[in-house]
Amino acid sequence: MKKPGMAHKILVLAALLLVSGSFASAQSGHLNVVKPAIADRDLVIPVSEVTENAVFYPVDIGGKRIEVLAVKAPDGTIRTAFNTCQVCYGSGRGFYKQQGTVLVCQNCGNRFRMSQVEVRSGGCNPVPIFPANKTVTETTITISKEFLTEAKAIFARWRRG
């Protein structure tokens, strides 16, 4: 019996990567981008950084790390939320990672469309940051240190890994 050739091995590897979702992540190179952390100040997100791939912004507030995500929804609007799940936050693993075109809770596996970010409240989805809690201009989205400080409690057991 003839041994599989290199082309066959590459095809099998590509199929495995595609099924696991790794191929899409590697191909785009932009999924799950985590920006450098800032400490004890307002979070200012440049609108130019926000695309259909979620960008994660860590903020250290009084020694506690929290994280905000920003993404452009299919309708072109920019959405923001805390990167912690409204149901699973107490587990410490209730945070999201992007897989393809959805966010996936790392605790329960719930899949969440980008169009639902900042729209849905309650249930297993990212904690929304509504317009009343941020200042949006043509070039930036600013979330105040005071509002970020109020959110520390939902990150008490958070362990992003």
Describe this structure in words.
- This protein is 17% helix and 32% strand.
- With 161 residues, the protein is of the alpha+beta class.
- The longest helix has 15 residues, at 6-20.
- Residues 6-29 have low confidence and may be disordered.
- The radius of gyration is 18 Å and the shape is globular.
- The strands form three sheets. Strands 1, 2, 4, 5, 6 and 10 form a six-stranded mixed sheet that branches. Strands 3-12-11 form a three-stranded antiparallel sheet.
- Strand 8 and strand 9 (111-113) form a beta hairpin.
- The chain folds into two domains: 1-29, no CATH class; 31-155, Rieske Iron-sulfur Protein.
Summarize the structure.
The protein is an alpha+beta fold and 161 residues long. It is 17% helix and 32% strand.
Give a topology summary.
Layout: H1 6-20, H2 22-28, E1 33-34, E2 38-39, E3 43-46, E4 55-61, E5 64-72, E6 78-85, E7 96-99, E8 102-105, E9 111-113, E10 126-128, E11 135-136, E12 140-143, H3 145-150
Parallel strand pairs: 1-4, 2-4
Antiparallel strand pairs: 3-12, 4-5, 5-6, 6-10, 7-8, 8-9, 11-12
What features would you highlight for this structure?
161 residues; Rieske Iron-sulfur Protein; 3-stranded antiparallel β-sheet; 3 helices; 32% strand
